[in-house]
Structure formats: structure tokens, C-alpha cells
Amino acid sequence: MSSRSASPTDLFASGEPEALKPLAERMRPRDLDEVVGQQRLVGPGKALRRALEAGRVHSMVLWGPPGCGKTTLALLVARYADADFRAISAVLSGLPEVRKALAEAEANFARGRRTVLFVDEVHRFNKAQQDAFLPHIEKGVILFVGATTENPSFELNSALLSRCRVHVLEAVSAEDIVAALKRALADAERGLGASRLEVDDASLQLIAQAADGDVRRALTLLEIAAELAQDGRIDEATLAQVLADRTRRFDKQGEQFYDQISALHKSVRSSDPDAAVYWLARMLDGGCDPLYLARRMTRMAVEDVGLAEPRAWRMALDAWDTYERLGSPEGELGLAQLAIWLAVAPKSNAAYQAWNAARAAVRETGTLEVPMHLRNAPTKLMKGLGYGKGYQYDHDVEGGVALDQQCLPEALEGTVFYEPVDRGLEQKLREKLGALRTARAEARRRR
Fold this sequence. Notes:
There is one protein chain. The protein folds into four domains: about 5-170, Rossmann fold (3-Layer(aba) Sandwich); about 175-240, Helicase, Ruva Protein, domain 3, CATH 1.10.8.60; about 255-345, Zinc Finger, Delta Prime, domain 3 (Up-down Bundle); about 350-445, Orthogonal Bundle (post-AAA+ oligomerization domain-like). Helices cover about 50% and strands about 5% of the residues. The protein has helices at about 25, 40, 45-55, 70-80, 95-110, 125-130, 135-140, 150-155, 160, 175-185, 200-210, 215-230, 235-240, 255-270, 275-285, 290-305, 310-325, 330-345, 350-365, 380-385, 425-445; strands spanning about 5, 60-65, 85-90, 115-120, 140-150, 165-170. Helix 5 links the parallel strand 3 (about 85-90) and strand 4. Helix 10 (about 175-185) packs across helix 11 (about 200-210), helix 16 runs parallel beside helix 18 and helix 17 (about 310-325) packs antiparallel against helix 18.
């Protein structure tokens, strides 16, 4: 991204020949009416649009996926605010570049000019770099516009967020992308209108779907197709060639990754096999490590299916092992079958809850003594001290259970950690355990 300053009249003209610019750059919207998508923010009558048109511009963070219009909106902020524009990229810039940009803004401010400082990929800056903007935002030296594809709550420090409004941008719909493509085909000055290119609506729809919410990507695909087109027509063969290697949006380390694994886990928990297998396919399609998915689904088998269907645990390990033996794509079928099975299996987090409750009790009650009758007594001294005295060997007791034998520390006597649910195998466990607990309570009363 350019790091130069630009005046309002120069924002959309870099001095470079238009013919040398990519189509996506040439077709960048020059006013709010040309923006496709984001109508929730800049549609007629919306608060941000009214503020821009009135020149009441504020510092902001624009959060959204690639190609949704963050850079364009930053340029329009400067245009409507009648301010100079300066852009830096957090990927390419360090603290020296930040200080230089702020010094230029200070000089501008002294001359009575405002500067919109656009910071692309702002989440790449560390805390010290982010803090450098704070006094300049407070004094009004700069109108700060940060762009990020990551959740600002996690990636930006609270001091910077407190001085900016966060605007959430969405992936652009296929219908809006088609509108942008048609505009490029019709525009003889900036777009492809002068070439009289022929392309039908079905082909435009395919390009829009392949772009996956990214207008810039859609225009790039159209431009490539136009270069390959013979006799001025984009036919099916040309389109197949251009779209052959398309991929969906997926960031292995970012927000989308965690959103999708959350969707997979919650689909399994909600017993929705269709959604579970869909999210599994989405993550595999995006390049997620299949072994990571195998590990996460094993966790689901333990946490969410639990003792309601103990076979799910074994099946998870088998699916994991199957993938390690077969690899892709054959091993992915084992993961798909596991996702479906986990979703349709009866659910219980009773064991998970019992484990958490027991851990909490350990933390809260400290080092409670083991009851004397449960202690091992391998020496005469220990027997003489009462170790093991009164212990009942359950196999020798009628019914196989010593009902009046207390196994918890005295301070926790009668505490219940595990409560089986009334689903799957735990229905039977619930019945048996309920009867045992009733009998134990009666035996304690008789003591």
C-alpha cells in the first residue's frame, strides 16, 4: 500500500496511467453511492453516512474480511472530511514510519489541515506502536482509521479502542458483487466498457460466488477472464480455466478459524449432523489440519457425548487412527463419519461436570485426610495406629456393596459430584446409582 499523502482532490488519482492500474483499483468507488454492500453502515439515512456527508468524521476501526471495502471507506472518509490522506501498512512499517507519518500530520495540523491516517492491518502493530497514535488522536491532529481482519477486542489495546468507534463490515453478497461486475463491464472510462466484452449473467454469478464475498477478488477474476477471452466473449471454457483454483476464505490463525471450529463443536452438541458435516467440510476445504479436527472431535466425544454413549470415545480414536493410516482424501471420510455419529449420539456432560466439581472441591477444601478405614496398612505399626481398621471388603458383603462404608473424607460425606442424565446408557446408570445412593443414605441414618 502507498504511504504517500494525498489531498482530497487527489485521493483517487495517483498520477499513474489508468491503463496500468488493475481493474479493481480503477473501479474503486469514488463516492458513497458507488459503494456495493455495507448498506447497514453507508446506506441512505444510516448514521455513518449522515456523519460523513455532514463532515462530522470520527476516528474509527474498520473490522471485516478481505475485499469488503475497508480501504475504500477510509479514502471516502478523507474525501468527505476534506482532509489529507496518509496510508501506512502495519505489515511493512515500524515505529520510525509511524513517527514520520505523525510528524507530517503535525505539520499539516499547524497549517490548519486535518489528516486521515489510514493504518492497514493495524492488528499487526504491537502495544507500543499502537500507543504512539493516542495523543495525536486526542488532540485531533489525525483522524485515525485502522483496518483489520481480526477481532479488535483481542488484537487492539483498550486505550486505542476507547478512542475509536468500531465499525463491522460484512462480506459482500454475491448479488452486490454481480452489480459491481456489471458496473465494470459498462464503464468505458475506468472499466471494461470500451472493450465491448460479452459475458452472460450466469457467468457473472459464478465469478461472484468464486470471489467469496471479496469484491476486489471478483474484479480481478473478471479482468483475467477478459484477457483470456477470445473474440470478446467469456465462454464456459475460459471461465473454467480462470476459476479452476479458487479457494474459500479461511485464516488458519485468525477469527474465522475459531468461529468455524466453534460452529462444528456446537453443531455436534446440538445433535445436528448436517451442520456438523458441513462445518467439517468447510474447515478441511480451507486447509485446516485434519489431525487437529480429529483431536477436537475426540474432545467432543469425551465432553459432550460422554457416558451416554461410551462407544463414541472409541470411535473417535479409531477415526483419528484411520486418518493417520490413510491420509487425505480417503481418511477424511472417517472424520466425516465420526462427526455424523457424534451429532446423532445421545449427549451427556455429566462426567465433565462431575470432574469440574471434584476439582473445585479439591481447591476449596485443601488436603483432607484419607479416612482411616481406607488407608493401606502394610506394617504392624500402621495396623497398630488403626490404618485399615473397619474396612469392609465389598465382594464379601451381601449384594456386593458395603452400603454404610464412607469413601469420601468426612468433611465431604454425602457430597454428590456425578449426576447422570436421563439419556442413552446413562439412563441405566442413573437408575442404578439412584438406588445405591438411596440405600447408602438409609444405611448412614442407621449408623
